[in-house]
Amino acid sequence: MVVEIRARPPCRVRLLVGSVAVGILALAAVTLSGLLSTNPVAAATGCQFLSSPGAAPAFCDTFDAPAGTGNRSGDLNGNLWGVSRISQGDNFGQGQYNTWAPTTLDLCGTNVTNVLPPDDVRICNGKLVESITDGGSQATLAMYPKQPFDFAGRTGTISFDLTNDSQGGHAAWPEIWLTDKPVPAPSNTNGGELSSYPQNGLEISFDGGGGQCNNDSTLTSVGSIHRISNYQSIDLSLTEIGCVQKSSGSNSAMNHYEIRISQNQVDVYATDPGSSTLKLIASAQNAGLTLTRGLLWMTDTHYNANKFDSQGTHTFAWDNFGFDGPVLARDLTFDAPDAMRSIGSQPNLCPCGSNIYNLGWYSDATKPATVTTMPMTAANIQAAAAVLVLANAHFDTAVSTINYSVNGHVHSTPITYAVAAKQSMALPVPASDLVAGPNTVAIWAAQPAIINNVDLLLVGAGGSGGASPTGNNPTPTPTKTQPTTSPTPTKTQPTTTPTPTKTVSPTPVGSRTATASPTSTATPARTVTTAPAVARWSMKAVSSPGTVKRGGTLTLSATVSASAAATGLVDVEVYDPSGNKSMQKFWDRQSFSGTAAKSFSASFRVPVNAQPGTWKVKVGVFGPGWAGLLGWNDTAASFTVK
User: Fold this and answer.
1) Of 165, 162, 176, which is closest to residue 256 (Cα–Cα)?
2) Mean pLDDT calculated for residue range 625-642
3) Digit-coded pLDDT (tens) for 500-531
4) In what order do the strands lie in the sheet with 409-414?
5) Rounded to whole angstroms, how far apart are CA atoms 307 and 227?
């Protein structure tokens, strides 16, 4: 039996509560025919809960406009969303550390080529678009809102719109994950070949079709539902009930999806593209989920999508992602930017003719993977209920212990589940290890490892959940998120293991305008906010000479001014044509009168093996001691290396 639910024409009352618009949608009663019978309405009109009439969104994002904050999340609001990426591109002997290929992104009808992270996640025409080029291998791009979803003692509802044109499980397909901790890039492709499991979770793959849809290639359904229990993936018994028409692509009408989750049952509903009729298409009973609260992920997954099909480079579009339930305090995360190290053209990894990039880092007992996160504030640290280091790791051989440090404070934690494959990690850290500003994190084991997607997580420090920058959300009082039970770190002394050297601040990525956090809590550091009216910043630079040979020396002159008296840290950085940082110099606690500009000069010797082309000079101003970004010029100057 196919259960259908229809929606009636929009009967919305728009209420303004602060900056949050609240939508009220009236639904009709259940009829004697067994259908929720109402009149049609376009599917993509906000976060709808057609399968659970009367449900109010605890979280809703309608992706109305770009809101990037300079972290790994691209155009998504980095205060609300986290993004991570993993691939099968790991090879210790060949220096391949979580490799990633440039992609072509369908940006609302315009094909943008040679796109690299984080610009592979964009917002245009009121929807989210993202793209992967898998290079003949397996890859996952994962996006999650940092506000937890809770369904304890009830059936919760997840709602979203999607252009699902998947060609199946050996192509590109979307998934929804639920993970007990926000461990990065959950993945489970091709029977676990590219596996990155949470300790407990749920995976729903939207790659169904074939026989379950009468071999009609225009139809799609749910391919599988897996329960993750204690890092083990269990394929749940799936009742295949129906199929829906595929979308025609990322610029076409969307399928609307709703997922109803309780601890013992998962029901999946969907519509045809642009339709208002919601159909029950799959169900997993006796699910036996081993969690009742977690983080929800939208993922784009590839498995050599050109081998039998044509989705090796592919764009999905998403919209109106939301869920119901209690409004919980959201977490804050502070990313370490991806390594983004070019390893040149690698035909064995990607027959695309493009340079391939390492997103991750090599690590061993003598050379820990050492990264610097985006800055945080003292208020962020004080608001945290707990602190975790998040990362993915690929171990060369099985290990039993992982070592890690934050700002030189060294810890070790047993890992009983680690094998020679991708692993997710959530490692506990005392809040006393953290400092206001950037934090240095190092990770290593007794055996070689590849580390990527490193974050510092401050549990519940984001304050009130629910309100997205563009969604239709209520603003009830949030429930304080309690820290997830984690093993207590063992404090160790850095004997033979080198203490990582503290590095300087990372560079904001991209030049698009960012928005401030939508909550009234302390804005997470590295959020590009509007500077106070009393201090507007101007930054520019000049390179002399403008053209230089490899091995030559040039002078960089930066000019910075403030519209009012202020004190700040001035940061000058140099980047090669591949986006790799080659030089950085900063001057802390510089006083500005508000009437005169100040000049800063730095000498830069171009490496003898430097990449020819256009190099960029970037200038930023932070609060004293890296206490938050005040202003940034991503294109302050440039020079040419011959």
Assistant:
1) 162
2) 83
3) 333 333 333 333 333 333 333 333 333 333 33
4) 369-372, 440-444, 401-406, 409-414, 490-491
5) 28
For residues 526 and 503, the answer to whether their CB atoms sit within 8 Å is no
Percent of the chain residues past pLDDT 70, beyond the cut = 79
Which residue matches tokens 């989920």? 289
Half-sphere exposure for 196 (CA within 13 Å, toward CB): 35
Structure tokens that stand for 87 in this block: 């691939």
**Mean pLDDT over residues 369-382, rounded?**
95
CB 619 within 8 A of CB 640: no
Residues 6+ apart with CB under 8 A from 443: 363, 368, 369, 389, 391, 393, 402, 403, 404, 425, 449, 451, 454
Choose the weakest-confidence range: 182-191, 201-210, 450-459: 182-191
pTM for the model: 0.70
- Sorted by sequence, the CB contacts under 8 Å of residue 271 that are 6+ apart come out as 43, 244, 255, 256, 257, 277, 278, 279
Q: Which domain holds residue 635?
A: 537-641
Domain count, the chain: 1
Whether residue 113 lies inside any domain: the answer is no
List of residues 6+ apart from 54 with CB closer than 8 A: 27
Is residue 611 assigned to a domain? yes
Per-residue confidence (pLDDT) for residue 631, from 0 to 100: 79
Would you say 277 and 236 are in contact if contact means Cβ atoms under 8 Å apart?
Answer: no
- Say which CATH number the domain at 542 has: 2.60.40.1930
- Residue 156: phi and psi, rounded to 5, are -95, 160
* Higher per-residue pLDDT: 161 or 351: 161
Count how many residues are written for the chain. Answer: 642
101 or 487: whose pLDDT is higher? 101
In a domain, 545, yes or no: yes
- With respect to residue 88, please indicate whether it lies within any of the assigned structural domains: no
Helix residue spans in 340-426 (DSSP H)? 378-383
Q: How far apart are CA 50 and CA 623, in angstroms?
A: 47
Q: Is 491 or 329 the better-scoring residue by pLDDT?
A: 329
